[in-house]
Amino acid sequence: MRVAKRPLVLAPYALAEALSELLDLPLVGELTSGAVTSRGEERQAVAEVRSLLPTAPSTYVEHEELLVDGVECAWRADPKPGCLRCEGFRL
Question: Which residues are bridge partners to 87 per DSSP?
């Protein structure tokens, strides 16, 4: 099931499950796996990003075309801690 064309209720992670129960709505993880289905190349974040955001990951994965569950996305923060993915620009 595609979630891209469905309305979403955004909530902090810690509150998402309780809110979904209260509103009787599914969590997005119940509708889709969120699997990255394209290949990318790991790159180092530029020094300017690291100086502005010192706790940000030092690397990211750049994709020519980033696909999540077969759907094109501009960026994605993977469940794996510190794994950021983007399409077509360098951080």
Answer: 63
Rg for the chain (alpha carbons), in Å? Answer: 15
- What CA–CA distance (Å, rounded) separates 33 from 22? 23
Angle value at C-alpha 75, between 74 and 80, nearest 5 degrees: 155
Cβ(35)–Cβ(29) under 8 Å?
Answer: no
3-class SS of residue 14: helix
pLDDT in tens, 13-46: 889 999 999 999 888 888 888 889 899 999 998 8
pTM, 2 dp? 0.65
Instruction: Tell which residue, 30, 81, 27, 29, has the closest CA to residue 59.
Output: 81
- The residue written with tokens 């209260």 in the block is 22
* Number of other residues whose CB lies within 10 A of the CB of residue 70: 10
Distance CA 45, CA 18 (A): 36
